[in-house]
Amino acid sequence: MTRMVEIEEHRTLEDYEAVAHLAPSVRDLREEASRVVPRLEGRTVWMVNSTSQGGGVAEMLSTMVTLLRDLGLSTEWVTIESEDPDFFALTKRIHNMIHGEGDLALPHRARRRECGPRSRTWSSGSREMAPTFPRTCGKTSVS
């Protein structure tokens, strides 16, 4: 099941810019964003993880989403949740592979067992909210 995460207002770039030693970095960030953000017009950056509370990533995302939006970038945060403990094993495996750990090349039978019916179940609710989520497992590119 997917759930959009509502972001409570956090510190803005203006807040950080008011801190003297951060002001030059904020100006540099705004300048770089003025070149990059227009190329992403009409697109949305999706932050996807398994929880909106607890853990380092969840704690950073609300601030990150706020700052990206402040720069003019359409940014959303969604969680994918499941009661099935195998779901978390799969997300942990994907996380480790993103960071260079683990092996992407599973034998065909293992890939089918790991990525088969369960991944279709987990992603079925996601298609309505974000139809560009990948629908297959074991590929290195994201659609």
Structural description of this entry:
A three-stranded mixed β-sheet has the order 1-3-2, covered by helices on one side. The chain is elongated and about 45 Å long. It folds into two domains: 2-80, Rossmann fold (3-Layer(aba) Sandwich); 85-129, no CATH class. The chain is mostly helical. α5 (108-115) runs parallel beside α6 (117-124). The protein has helices at residues 13-17, 23-36, 56-70, 85-98, 108-115, 117-124, 126-129, and strands at residues 2-4, 45-49, 75-80. Residues 107-112 and 126-143 have low confidence and may be disordered.
- Rounded to the nearest angstrom, the radius of gyration is 18 Å
Shape: elongated
Order of helices and strands: EHHEHEHHHH
- CATH homologous superfamily placement of the largest domain: Glycogen Phosphorylase B
* CATH architecture tag of the largest domain: 3-Layer(aba) Sandwich
Mind summarizing the main beta sheet?
3 strands, mixed
State the distance separating the first and last CA atoms: 20 Å
Strand content: 5-15%
How many distinct helices?
Answer: 7
- Spatial strand order of the main sheet: 1-3-2
Overall structural class, as computed from helix and strand content, comes to mainly alpha
